[in-house]
Amino acid sequence: QVQLVESGGGLVQPGGSLRLSCAASGSIFRINVMGWYRQAPGKQRELVATITIGGSTNYADSVKGRFTVSRDNAKNTVYLEMNSLKPEDTAVYYCNCRRGIGDYIDYWGQGTQVTVSS
Question: Which of 27-36, 56-65, 71-80 has the highest mean pLDDT?
């Protein structure tokens, strides 16, 4: 079992920045991929960014160039630096952890609210 705890969400002005953190605990071995997803009201959950244990990253086109995902393997923590925030970035952001390869199991945090508004 893996537990994920997100932090760093809040209310920001358009063009502002936020940094989200997600710490994993529990059965943290074989955690290969960590990342961030988001879900806005009335919409499906969508991928924001992922990062592998080796540091390979993947971003949604909508956030590419504005968001940066990073990972501290020693601390079992993944970060999402969000810059140039737009109102359409408003959503609940969920941390994801993929444990294993092939027969992997996905774990999810409770989510943290990000609101971009004037």
Answer: 56-65
